[in-house]
Structure formats: C-alpha cells, structure tokens
Structure to design on (76 residues):
C-alpha cells in the first residue's frame, strides 16, 4: 500500500465486495440461511461505513449503488 489512506480505501472496497457476496446469498437462500446471510450483510455494511466514514445506498447491491464498485460477480 502506498499510504494509510489507500489501505483504508482498500478495506472499504473489500467490505463492499463481501457485502455483495452476502447479498447474493440472501437472494438465493431461504429460512435460517437467509437470516444468517442478512446479518452478515449488515455487519459487512457497517464495517464498510466505519472504514469509509459514510454509507452507500443499498449496501451489497452494486446495480443500485451510486458507484458500481461493489460487484459480487467476478469479471474475467
């Protein structure tokens, strides 16, 4: 990392991506798994807010976010 600000941006980006994965799991699951995935999504979103210093609309949903950086779908 070039500096601490870059490390903080990376941490927020990683939490956004983790939230995206949990968001996909929430959509694809049912019952108890959905509840667990929802809680994990919330926790990742809270951690991202702490790193970033602010929130984003629809954490974990890159297609609805203002900036499309939190995609859970890998690109080749």
């Amino acid at each position: 990392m070039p500096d601490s600000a870059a490390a903080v941006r990376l941490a927020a980006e990683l939490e956004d991506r983790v939230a995206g994965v949990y968001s996909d799991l929430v959509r694809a699951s049912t019952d108890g798994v959905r509840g667990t995935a929802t809680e994990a999504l919330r926790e990742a979103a809270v951690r991202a807010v702490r790193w970033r210093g602010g929130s984003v609309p629809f954490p974990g949903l890159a297609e609805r976010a203002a900036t499309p950086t939190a995609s859970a779908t890998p690109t080749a």
User: Anything to note?
Assistant: The chain has a mean pLDDT of 83.
